[in-house]
């Protein structure tokens, strides 16, 4: 696994909205089969980085390589092809509100496969039972709870058996127990699907329970502070800010260096 | 209790002692305290406080103290806070801790008139470019549609066809009937003076088929369907539903804009034909019942007045109006910001822009048809 080329390689990425530079000089790699977290304070650009990684936003400068191919230099067909290999779970679920849960999950299958309606129906049932929502096929997104919507969003994200799954703050707005069970679900899915998982989060319990690699974005210097396994970073990072964040403390003083 | 406040100063060598008296609370009428800078003399090197005679305090005292301390620190004067109550000291300490990080993002600073004008001018140009780009995208999407590469749900198309057609009939019927009635009344007053009552049939027939049928239908659809397109797409933008489509490799343009636009372009001419018919019927009722024109005569006069040219002028217009209404609804929705306020703005702007476009293009059409003589 060490020798395998990284699934996503980010080199010198600069993210900007017009003249406003959000983050600059980001370089890190995401390896196949790992769970990678993007950490940082609120407003540092975590979600924007996710939009870059999922191909929704073009970098101001720098490159993003997917299995060695430069994403923005590739043809549109290739880009769409890559995007189909990625599943995204948005903060609010982003289920299409005019369709039922079942139709939401069925849509990518209808659009990108030649499966018959009956088979698609079976896959939808199966994906729903994977995320613990069996029997919710005919409900509209507005009629189920926030936690269920996230699970349904997850079922849609894994509809096409993606190689890589992106999560935007999966546990935001969930109670500790629901968020714990969502974390467990993510781990189980990684183990059973063998997918690579990228999570934007600032929930410490989730970070420690899930991540085996991470990048830490900083608001003040507008760049990344470090990358590595959060468990190691928590004790060994040379940056006081990272240790403070990971130990959830404001009193950690510089003398402890 | 002493419900007054005062501040005394006591200069002792190079030390200034500020004595706070009475109750320094927000409920006490503000006392006239001297200007802070006047309390200090040039030789002051250090500052201390005496609050023995202070009976009560709240934020009012803190605000004053913060000002004094600010002034002192900026002039390099040493401050001894021991004379202050402990609560005051700890609160002051908290304010001096500094802010949490530096704010990022744009600050909301009210701008001046000229800046506003400049921003609007620049905004106008960038918006025009955006609209041009959107037009290009629509063209590309239709090329994809006709070469069979566009993906959208047939269910969506039938839904919007139903929504833009049959569901809009009652309101279109009511409005165009009344427009026909109004036209007939206006004409009746003038034409009666010449005893040319029968020409009401010509007036209503021509006005409805050439202008009013298509235009009223378009304006109703702008308010009804254009607004709903903008709101639907805008809400989808807010909920990241459009991002979700895009990351799945489904072109949101094909999936969302094509069915809406196609449905409206198909339905608008049909609505216009219906509006023409109902408008003429409105004129017919007025002609027959209040002006005593014989129904047969009115019918024959109408048939004589309207030929295919007049009729097709209205139909051509209504196709373009259908496109414009769908265009405004979709562009405003797709370019909507990510807040509830932005959805409201998108909806309003979709209706306003659509109506402006309808009237402007109608004027252009009328001028053009006039020149080529149809």
Concise overview:
The complex is a heterodimer of chains A (257) and B (374). Chain A is an alpha/beta fold.
Structure, explained:
The complex is a heterodimer of chains A (257) and B (374). By secondary structure, chain A is α/β, with parallel strands linked by helices. Helix content of chain A is 37%, strand content 23%. Chain A contains nine helices and ten strands. Chain A has helices at 46-53, 76-84, 101-112, 117-130, 146-157, 176-193, 204-210, 230-236, 240-247; strands at 8-17, 20-30, 35-40, 61-66, 69-70, 86-89, 164-168, 196-200, 213-217, 224-227. In chain A, the strands form two sheets. A six-stranded mixed β-sheet of chain A has the order 6-7-8-3-9-10. A four-stranded antiparallel β-sheet of chain A has the order 2-1-4-5, with helices on one face. In chain A, α3 (101-112) runs parallel beside α5 (146-157) and α4 (117-130) crosses α5 (146-157). The longest helix of chain A has 18 residues, at 176-193. The mean pLDDT of chain B is 88. The radius of gyration of chain B is 36 Å and the shape is elongated. With 374 residues, chain B is of the alpha/beta class. Chain B has two domains: 5-95, 2-Layer Sandwich (Transcription Regulator spoIIAA); 145-372, no CATH class. Chain B has helices at 36-39, 59-74, 86-95, 113-146, 154-164, 169-193, 200-238, 241-247, 252-289, 295-305, 308-334, 340-372, and strands at 5-12, 15-24, 46-50, 54-57, 78-80. The chains are: A alpha/beta (257), B alpha/beta (374). At the A-B interface, α2 and α3 of A face α7 and α8 of B.
């Amino acid at each position: 696994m060490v020798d395998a080329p990284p699934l996503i390689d980010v080199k010198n990425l600069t993210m900007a909205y017009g003249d406003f530079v959000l983050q600059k000089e980001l370089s890190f790699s995401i390896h196949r089969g790992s769970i990678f977290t993007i950490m940082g304070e609120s407003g540092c650009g975590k979600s924007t980085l996710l939009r870059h990684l999922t191909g929704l936003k073009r970098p101001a400068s720098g490159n993003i390589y997917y299995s060695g191919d430069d994403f923005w230099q590739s043809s549109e067909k290739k880009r769409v092809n890559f995007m189909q290999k990625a599943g995204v779970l948005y903060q609010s679920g982003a289920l299409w509100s005019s369709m039922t849960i079942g139709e939401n999950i069925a849509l990518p299958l209808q659009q990108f496969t030649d499966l018959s309606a009956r088979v698609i129906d079976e896959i939808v049932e199966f994906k729903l039972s994977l995320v613990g929502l069996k029997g919710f096929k005919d409900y509209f997104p507005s009629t189920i709870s926030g936690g269920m919507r996230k699970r349904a969003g997850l079922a849609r994200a894994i509809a096409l058996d993606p190689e890589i799954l992106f999560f935007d703050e999966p546990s935001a707005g969930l109670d500790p127990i629901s968020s714990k069970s969502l974390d467990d679900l993510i781990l189980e899915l990684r183990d059973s699907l063998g997918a690579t998982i990228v999570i934007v989060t600032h929930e410490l319990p989730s970070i420690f329970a899930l991540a085996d690699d991470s990048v830490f974005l900083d608001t003040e210097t507008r760049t990344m502070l470090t990358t590595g396994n959060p468990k190691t970073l928590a004790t060994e990072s040379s940056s006081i800010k990272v240790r403070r964040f990971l130990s959830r403390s404001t009193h950690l003083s510089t003398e402890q260096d | 209790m002493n419900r007054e406040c005062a501040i005394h100063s006591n200069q002792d060598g190079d030390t200034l002692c500020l004595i706070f008296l009475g109750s320094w609370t927000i409920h006490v009428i503000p006392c006239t305290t001297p200007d802070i800078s006047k309390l200090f003399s040039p030789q002051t090197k250090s500052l201390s406080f005496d609050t023995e005679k202070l009976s009560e305090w709240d934020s009012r005292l803190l605000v004053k103290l913060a000002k004094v301390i600010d002034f002192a620190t900026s002039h390099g004067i040493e401050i001894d806070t021991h004379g202050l109550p402990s609560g005051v000291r700890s609160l002051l300490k908290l304010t001096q801790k500094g802010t949490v990080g530096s704010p990022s993002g744009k600050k909301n600073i009210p701008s001046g008139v000229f800046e506003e004008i400049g921003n609007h001018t620049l905004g106008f140009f960038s918006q025009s470019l955006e609209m041009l780009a959107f037009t290009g995208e629509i063209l590309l999407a239709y090329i994809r549609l006709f070469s069979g590469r566009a993906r959208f749900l047939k269910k969506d198309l039938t839904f919007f066809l139903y929504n833009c057609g049959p569901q809009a009939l009652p309101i279109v019927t009511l409005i165009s009937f009344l427009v026909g009635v109004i036209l007939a009344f206006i004409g009746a007053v003038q034409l009666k003076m010449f005893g040319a009552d029968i020409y009401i049939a010509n007036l209503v027939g021509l006005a409805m088929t050439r202008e009013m049928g298509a235009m009223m239908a378009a304006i109703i659809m702008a308010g009804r369907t254009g607004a709903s397109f903008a709101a639907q797409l805008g809400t989808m933008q807010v909920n990241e539903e459009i991002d979700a489509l895009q990351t799945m490799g489904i072109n949101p343009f094909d999936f969302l804009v094509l069915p809406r636009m196609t449905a409206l372009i198909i339905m608008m001419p049909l609505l216009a034909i219906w509006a023409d018919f109902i408008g003429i019927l409105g004129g017919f009722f007025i002609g027959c019942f209040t002006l005593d024109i014989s129904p047969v005569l009115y019918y024959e006069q109408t048939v004589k007045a309207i030929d295919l040219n007049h009729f097709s002028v209205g139909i051509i217009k209504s196709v373009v109006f259908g496109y414009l209404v769908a265009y405004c609804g979709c562009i405003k929705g797709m370019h909507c910001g990510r807040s509830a306020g932005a959805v409201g703005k998108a909806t309003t702007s979709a209706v306003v822009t659509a109506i402006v476009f309808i009237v402007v293009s109608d004027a252009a059409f009328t001028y053009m048809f006039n020149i080529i003589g149809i």
